What we know:
- This protein has 573 residues and is an all-alpha fold.
- The chain has a domain at 22-270.
- It is 64% helix and 2% strand.
- The protein is built from 18 helices and 4 strands.
- It has helices spanning 2-32, 40-54, 64-87, 106-117, 127-130, 133-163, 173-198, 226-235, 256-280, 284-311, 340-353, 368-379, 390-410, 423-449, 451-454, 462-477, 492-521, 538-571; strands at residues 209-212, 218-221, 415-416, 419-420.
- It has a two-stranded antiparallel sheet.
- It is globular.
- The two termini are 24 Å apart.
Amino acid sequence: MANFYSVAQYASFIIIVTVLVKPLGGYLERVFARKHTLLDRILLPIEKFIYRITGVDSTVEMTFSQYATCFVLFGLFGTLLLYAILRVQRFLPWFFPAYQSTPLTPDLALNTAVSFSTTTTWQAYGGENTMSYFSQMVGLCTQNFLAGAAGLAVGIAFNRGLARQLSNTLGNFWVDLVRALLWVLLPASLIGALLLVWQGVPMNFHPYAVATTVEGGKQIIAQGPVAALEIIKNLGTNGGGFFNANGAHPYENPTPLTNFLEMLAIVLLPAALTNTFGRMVGQPRQGWLLFYVMLFLFTCGLLFVHSSEQRGNPLLGRVDFRAGSLQSGGNMEGKEVRFGIGGSTLTEVVTSNTATGSTNAMDDSFSSLGGMVLLVNMLLGELVFGGLGSGLYSMVMAAAIAVFLAGLMVGRTPEYLGKKIGPAENKMIMLYALAAPMIVLPLAAIALSTRAGLAGLTTNGGPHGFTEILFAYTSCFASNGQSFGGLSANTAFYNLTTVLAMMVGRFGLTIPALALAALFAGQRNTPSSSGTLPTHGFTFAVLLTVCLIIMVALSYLPALALGPLLERLLFGN
Length: 573
């Protein structure tokens, strides 16, 4: 019975996402092409007012360098502003010194500021024990909106570059940012927050409640504006929880329905961007191909993790892991009993594939192979749905690599969407592809070979400890924020080294992507011929999928062999 409910949940999720891809993709295309939408009557005056007070000329477009500079400076300004708020939060409203007991040291404040301004939302702190209501709402929640909107703006600019011919501009960053906020994130957040409040997620500024338990002890129940932060952390593919337990806390995620809705909030916009991409380049089939490759990889991960967790630990021979009417079966360690293996599996696979670390279970307690899938999802490069904007251009970058390899095999200059992939384009693609292994693996090696890095392994050593460290740097680079809880990351060493991974993962990937879009925009479309590789059919989908698997294997197989694979061989779980 438990497996039936899990499969029904997975199937419902996939069907709903697939059905909504086209209408949402069309809406996004209309918003950023400045076509008419139902919200225009309300939002157009607000948009014009914002441009008037900020001095933005919405008719002026930007070159690649201007667009990228605005994106980087906007992110850095957000980082500095959030850092300042965190450093002085004790002097700001709604700070409860009796309960906000975790000190925000300079390195932790910097780590948190960079984390939220890059949509990583890596949390080396406990939310309710560290952040005041003011910091949560004015600091973290605001950055969830702004950083998410900036990522969506870049994704749209990338699409424009691939769609244009003989152009040296990619749009206007400030216009794209404002439209992403007003037409997409704000209305979606309002609707989503109301749904969460309806299901029991609190939205208040009450002081923390102190209750007396049956045994006579004291229990502190944190309150706060949870619903506002909860919905945008998912819509903006951020993931930073109001509470330390994140999506496992009953205030953030009270029912199986809220869990399902929050997962939809994470996936719908990144998935819809594939349809927006197809519309903008004038080839809808290209967008559907990218979506179906994403969906295939997502489904494989979902089934693999479910199988691993439902099977349980084979070393516990006397334990009955079979699912039945009286028990869920499987490996329930570290999982929320309200959601079971099905709800936990769906959440972990969704969040590890996207740039959203909004977990409802303890990744550290998954089986070795189940945890490996979560790690591989991030190592794929944040391209199975991925973050707002970043998921789409990550998949297109992978498609360009597949086209290049196919071109080498047949001895032709590779083309994608009618544009040549020459030396300059290849340099941007290679910079993008090599950034992850060139950052993640050296940082993990430094942590594993230094006393400061090994000091974080307070619970586990051996292959599992290796996986904890590798998972941490992979998560930070992938703008994800999930972690294996056995790693104590609130130290100066991890706070500073993970900042480096976050910065490169955000800006070191976006800039080559925008540069490639600019190179494509400057070309004239080449008419297809009998020698042109079709990039919208089943054959190319297979080529792209195989290429992705080979790239991950070549870059990370030795590391995976030292971590989760070795753990599986040694301990059998």
